[in-house]
């Protein structure tokens, strides 16, 4: 399919999606959302794909939801259309998604990066929730996901003042998992995704589910959930193969990659 706002490619077993609206710093409009839903659905349907990398340009991952598209909207329009709900599909992706962020990740851009499983940032990355400066608040999860990740004090600081956080601060705060030089960003993210895609997919999907459950439930329930998933993986051939390969000092040949 031909995309207007994305570049969609595959690199071996990795799906690569590049936001491509340079004239608007990759602002997220309804076309971007529709096309992202399509690209995600295609990669999920494609058995060969084991992980996805989502990136933007060097200048901007995404500078937010499209302010020009939103400005004239009325409450009733937003409510009737359940504006924003389409992004839930992206957040609920089953296959692992890595955000590779360079430049601005603001408002919906920061929120989109946080919907991914982890964020690898370039030294130039800048994160922020500037919605308050527009007379609104975050709407795609910024007040919820950011708070869970960086804690109340820093989340309040970001959401109430709208200030930006650089890559070093984002790493200290736990918002990003690694910071790399700008020219290394895509290779680093693709290598991480390729590693994930080389592993047994049932264990990868369960690992993602288990970590996500930690944000949704009590410790006791979370531990029970993890243990059940752990037990269930012993019903897979890949558990036998992975452990046998370790003992025999060879590389595992996973069946369910
Ligand atoms: C629409 C945008 C945009 C946005 C940038 N542009 N951000 N268009 N929506 N979110 C457009 C500009 O209008 C401009 O177009 C072009 O991109 C380049 O931007 P400049 O402002 O000229 O660049 P610069 O001076 O380098 O400043 C970069 C910037 C600034 C600091 C990132 O663009 C900025 O503050 N952008 C808005 C950030 C923001 O408030 N985001 C939150 C949005 S609300 P022209 O045509 O003039 O050249 C949101 C809510 C999410 O995200 C939840 C609900 C869905």
Automatic annotation (TrEMBL):
Swiss-Prot/TrEMBL catalytic activity: a 4-saturated-(3S)-3-hydroxyacyl-CoA = a (3E)-enoyl-CoA + H2O; a (3S)-3-hydroxyacyl-CoA = a (2E)-enoyl-CoA + H2O
Keyword Lipid metabolism on entry: yes
Stated name of the protein: enoyl-CoA hydratase
This enzyme's EC code(s): 4.2.1.17
UniProt keyword annotations, A-Z: Fatty acid metabolism, Lipid metabolism, Lyase
An MF annotation (GO) of this entry: enoyl-CoA hydratase activity
InterPro entries hit by this protein: ClpP/crotonase-like_dom_sf, Enoyl-CoA_hyd/isom_CS, Enoyl-CoA_hydra/iso, Enoyl-CoA_hydra_C
Taxonomic source organism: Rhizobium mongolense USDA 1844
PANTHER family (alphabetical): ENOYL-COA HYDRATASE, MITOCHONDRIAL, ENOYL-COA HYDRATASE-RELATED
Primary role: Could possibly oxidize fatty acids using specific components.
């Amino acid at each position: 399919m031909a995309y207007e706002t994305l570049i969609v490619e595959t690199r071996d077993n990795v799906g690569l999606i590049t936001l491509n609206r340079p004239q608007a710093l990759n602002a997220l409009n309804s076309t971007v959302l529709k096309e992202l839903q399509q690209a995600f659905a295609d990669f999920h349907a494609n058995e060969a794909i084991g992980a996805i990398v989502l990136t933007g340009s060097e200048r901007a991952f995404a500078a937010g939801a499209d302010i020009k598209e939103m400005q004239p909207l009325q409450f009733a329009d937003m409510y009737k259309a359940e504006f924003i709900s389409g992004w839930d599909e992206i957040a609920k992706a089953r296959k692992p998604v890595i955000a590779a962020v360079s430049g601005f990740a603001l408002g919906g851009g920061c929120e989109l990066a946080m919907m991914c499983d982890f964020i690898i940032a370039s030294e130039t990355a800048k994160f922020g929730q500037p919605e308050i400066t527009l007379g609104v608040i975050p709407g795609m999860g910024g007040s919820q996901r950011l708070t869970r990740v960086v804690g109340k004090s820093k989340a309040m600081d970001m959401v109430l003042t709208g200030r930006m956080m650089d890559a070093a601060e984002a790493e200290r705060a736990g918002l990003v998992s690694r910071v790399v030089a700008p020219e290394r960003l895509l290779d680093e993210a693709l290598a991480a995704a390729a590693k994930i895609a080389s592993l047994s997919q049932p264990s990868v999907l369960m690992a993602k589910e288990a970590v996500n459950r930690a944000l949704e439930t009590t410790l006791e329930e979370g531990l029970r959930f993890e243990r059940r998933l752990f037990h269930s993986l012993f019903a897979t051939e890949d558990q036998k193969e992975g452990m046998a390969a370790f003992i025999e000092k060879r590389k595992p040949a996973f069946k369910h990659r």
